[in-house]
Every structure is written in C-alpha cells, then in structure tokens.
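Preliminary data (for renewal application), nicotinamide-adenine-dinucleotide complex.
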Amino acid sequence: MTWTRREFTKLGAMGTAAMAVPGAFAQAEQRVGFAVIGLGVIADHFMRGARQSQHCRITALVSGHRDKAERIAAEYGVPKESIYSYEEFDRIRDNKAVQAVYVALPNSMHAEYTIRAAKAGKHVFCEKPMAVSSAECRQMIDACKAANVKLMIAYRMQYEPLTLKCIDLVKTGQIGTVGAFESQFGFNIQPGVWRTKKALAGGGSVFDVGIYSLQAARLFTGEEPVEFKAYAGTVHKDDPRFAEMEESIEWTMKFPSGVVASCASSYGAQMEGFMRVHGVNGMIEMGPTFGYDGTTMKGRGKGGVRWDEVNSEKDPKQFEREADHFAECVLNNREPKTPGEEGLRDLTYVEKIYEAAGIKL
Ligand code: NAD
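Predicted structure:
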C-alpha cells in the first residue's frame, strides 16, 4: 500500500492531536492518575466513571481498611505499593503515577486532605460540600494556589447535559423573565451514619443535599442571593438521628433582580429532588433530578412550545463527564468550570441559611 502526500499530512496531524489531547488514543501514562481518598459509596461511582473515561485512571488508593483497598486495587489494576493508610498519605508525594487526588471523605475531612494533597504537589478534585465552613474553603483555595495545583469541586450537575439545556433555555429567554424558583431534596437517613454527626458533617441536610437546591437556584437565576430567611424543625424529637442537627429546614433566598427562591431539605422526609423555575411566559420543571441518572424535565415556553425529555444516560456517566473535565484542565493547564471559589460561594450561603434559621454551626 502506498500513501499519497495528502494522506501522510493527515496522519501526521492525527498523531499530533493524539499527543496533545490524550483520549481514545492515549496510552495509560498519558491519562491523569488519581489517588482515591476514602473508599465509600461515592468513590465507587467515581472509580467506575473514571474507568470508562477518556483521560483518567486510578493509580492509588487511600483507606483505613486494607482488605477493602486490596480488593478494589485488584479490580482497578492499582499496585499494592500504591495503597496508603491515612497516616502515611503524605508519602504520595513520591508516587509519580499520581497527578491528582479525589477526596471522597466525610465533609469535615475535605480541608485536611485537600491541603495535604496540595502540599504533596497533587491536583485536587474534591467532593461537595467543599468543606464545613467558608474559612476552611479559603484555606483550601490558598493551599492549592500556593502549590500551583488545580482545585475542582465535584458539582456533577454542572456537567449534566439536560440540566445544562434547561439552564440555556432559561438564559435565552424561552420562558421569559424569571419570576420565581422552587426546589427540594431530602431523604430519611439511616441511624448512626457520619452524616448525623455534626463534627463530621458540619451540620444538617443543607450541607449534603440542600446544596443541590442552592446551586440550582443560583444557576437557573444566574444571580447570587443577597437575603436569607430560614426555618428549621424536627418532628421526631427524641430520635437520636436528630440529636445534633435539625430534621428538616426550609429557606428562602432573595436575588438582586427580586426573584425569591423557595427551597427545602430534610434528613427525615423523602423529598425526591426537584426544581421548578417560573417565568413570565412559561415554566421548566426538573424532577426527578440531582440523582446519578434519569434526569427528567418538562415545561412549556413562549409560543406554546412544550418540552418533555429524559436523559437516558446511565450511571456512572455523570462521574465520567466531571472526571474528564477535571483531567482535561490538568492536562491543558486550564481552570475548572467549578473551582474552589464556587465551593466557597456555596459554603458562605450555607452559613447564612443556618444563621437565618438561628442555628449555630
Ligand atoms: P461514605 O460513608 O459512603 O464513605 C466515606 C468514606 O470515608 C468511607 O470509605 C469511610 O471509611 C471513610 N472514612 C474515613 N474516615 C472516616 C470517619 N472518621 N468517619 C466515617 N468515614 C470515614 O460516604 P459518601 O456517601 O461516599 O460521601 C463521601 C463524600 O462524598 C461526602 O462529602 C459527600 O457529601 C460526598 N457525596 C457526593 C455525592 C455526589 O453526588 N457528588 C453523593 C454522595 C456523597
């Protein structure tokens, strides 16, 4: 077989592209190697997402349970020498196969491991909520800046196509000027889990699930809230699950345009995640939403147009998308779409919500 001059040029260009953007063509070493810190529920989704991603691979594990870590290491091809306990985590500095960490620990541990990872020269992809206070968020941002490493918060809905489509419909005026917003998210929590311990969770359900409604209100209005009112309540008063935090909380946020968002979250009541944005000429509703797949939207807009759509992609696609975005930022030295500053904004508002409810964090 002989190649024409044009085919040679095309092949050369393809080779250069493959080197510049490791992906389908990429060798394992060209992918961003992640150390996963904390091997719980969300870490499992993330690792499955990373496995089917273009730019990521799992190269180390950090866990307090050696047996579990060895089992997962075997599944993901992680060498035994790349399993670390929390105590020996700082040795990760010397592991050349690790460029980034994924922090999947209880909320109060995010700041410590982000800062330790930055000091070890590793980029940080951290689960939401970014931390348990805005002060901690600032320390994390400063540590990552000082170490010249990327910091991204795992706000997976900001990478979910149907959510992005709905935001775009609102932004481009398809339902007219936005007048009001509503959202809820909650579930009936198991007893004894770390989420019910203030020292590990930071506070109640706003840190965990209410933050989705808070984010949605900001994204769908395109504004930052300026006033907060909130009520917290506990129905199951002697329930040990609510010894350290409220059972449910409802809050309203006012935006500079005058839009008022009405939100709620709970650890006692089943509240399938939903959000609804009302405009002068129509309405868009997403629900169920905030889950790992099956995001659904319905609505009607200007000129009688109707929408009715489900994202049929399956879990762990959302995790693959956010992991690939972060890896591309690392590979191409770009700022992530959801940097530490985005997490800081939310924690500032979470603090204001609890202050408005008269709850000291
Ligand atoms: P999980 O309880 O399933 O996992 C937590 C992991 O941390 C476990 O492996 C546990 O062994 C480890 N750990 C280390 N020290 C611990 C301690 N002192 N107490 C308890 N566990 C300890 O929790 P999860 O649901 O995976 O949540 C982890 C983080 O991920 C949280 O910050 C949570 O908000 C976030 N999260 C994000 C999403 C999302 O969709 N983005 C969903 C769920 C959880």
